[in-house]
């Protein structure tokens, strides 16, 4: 795997394993050069190689990103050409990061801010939800490796990871496709590992936490440790998706849901208006496309924001 960075010191924090000697960065194509320009904002880039994580082709490590890596990857793919499969972008901190529906995301040092570019170029069943499930389940798998946190993390519909009802992670997914053939997928993962960001509570996100704060083993709750385990989980689960085993990922998503069996409010999600309660009740199940099924309500819900009742 080729590693590019604007800060050798930051790279050594994220990847403590042995690496080859550093050199001035060179890029095999114009799209990677454009990605570097957007991530490093004109700062000099350095290049090396690591022999681990060999399924991933390129890793960009930026100490402080001037903009959302997730948005940049999507923007490049909306041009005339596209990026390669297996590109990772990791930022130590940054500006203009966001969550679902462009809601702001606080990027704090010691946490993981990861964007992943995939180019499967094949038919994928349930791809509309498959990649959000891939991201969420991979985060769960990584957290389960932390002593003290095994089995404690759960998924709040549709893209939040909670421990003790406190949000520790949010995931995003974007896809481009022609019919069922997916050409591009971009994943965004923000995981609070060492630091709990200062976030104003809302009914939808009443509290946030970090893995270290909720009782994870301090030696395991470190950015490089969780990053390595997260990338391994993503690699394994991406292969399941490519092999047509999306149902196994959907089953795990359902098993780790924190909304099934809970009383909830489902609210409208309009950017410029007050949320309106669309339905109240107990969640009976999640459908094949993650639609929310409420007891006593005929209509399934595929959109909206969810409030977990105490």
Give structural notes:
There is one protein chain. The protein has 310 residues and is α+β, with helices and mostly antiparallel strands. It has two domains: 2-255, BirA Bifunctional Protein, domain 2, CATH 3.30.930.10; 263-308, no CATH class. Helix content is 24%, strand content 28%. The protein contains six helices and 15 strands. Strands 1, 2, 3, 4, 5, 6, 7, 8, 9, 10 and 11 form an eleven-stranded mixed β-sheet that branches. Strand 10 (166-178) and strand 11 (181-191) form a beta hairpin. Helix 2 packs antiparallel against helix 3 (69-77), helix 4 packs antiparallel against helix 5 and helix 4 packs across helix 6. It is globular, with a radius of gyration of 19 Å. The model has no long low-confidence stretch (mean pLDDT 90).
Which helices and strands occur, and which strands form pairs?
Layout: E1 2-5, H1 8-14, E2 23-24, H2 30-40, E3 46-49, E4 58-65, H3 69-77, E5 87-94, E6 112-118, E7 122-123, H4 127-143, E8 154-156, E9 160-163, E10 166-178, E11 181-191, H5 223-242, H6 246-255, E12 263-267, E13 277-286, E14 292-294, E15 305-308
Helix pairs in contact: 2-3, 4-5, 4-6
């Amino acid at each position: 795997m080729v590693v590019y960075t604007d800060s050798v010191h930051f790279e050594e924090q994220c990847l403590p394993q042995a690496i080859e000697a550093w050199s001035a960065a060179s890029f095999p194509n114009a799209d990677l050069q454009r990605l570097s320009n957007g991530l490093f904002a004109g700062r000099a880039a350095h290049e090396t190689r690591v022999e681990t994580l060999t399924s991933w082709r390129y890793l960009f490590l930026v100490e402080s990103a001037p903009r959302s890596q997730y948005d940049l990857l999507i923007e490049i793919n909306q041009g005339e050409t596209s990026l390669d499969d297996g590109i990772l972008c990791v930022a130590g901190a940054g500006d203009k990061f966001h969550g679902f529906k462009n809601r702001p995301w606080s990027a704090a040092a010691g946490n993981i801010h990861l964007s992943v570019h995939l180019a499967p170029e094949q038919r994928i069943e349930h791809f509309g939800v498959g990649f959000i499930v891939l991201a969420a389940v991979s985060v769960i798998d990584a957290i389960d490796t932390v002593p003290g946190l095994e089995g404690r993390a759960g998924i709040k519909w549709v893209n939040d990871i909670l421990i003790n009802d406190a949000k520790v992670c949010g995931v995003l997914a974007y896809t481009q496709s022609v019919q069922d053939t997916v050409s591009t997928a971009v994943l965004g993962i923000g995981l609070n590992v060492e630091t709990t960001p200062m976030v104003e509570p809302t009914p939808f996100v009443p509290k946030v936490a970090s893995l270290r704060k909720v009782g994870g083993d301090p030696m395991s709750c470190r950015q490089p440790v969780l990053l390595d385990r997260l990338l391994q989980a993503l690699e394994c689960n991406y292969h399941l998706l490519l092999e047509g085993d999306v149902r196994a990922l959907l089953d795990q998503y359902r098993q780790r849901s924190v909304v099934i069996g809970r009383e909830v409010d489902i609210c409208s999600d309009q950017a410029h208006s007050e949320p309106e309660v669309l339905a109240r009740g107990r969640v009976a199940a999640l459908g094949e496309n993650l639609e929310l099924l409420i007891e006593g309500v005929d209509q399934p819900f595929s959109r909206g924001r969810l409030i977990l009742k105490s």
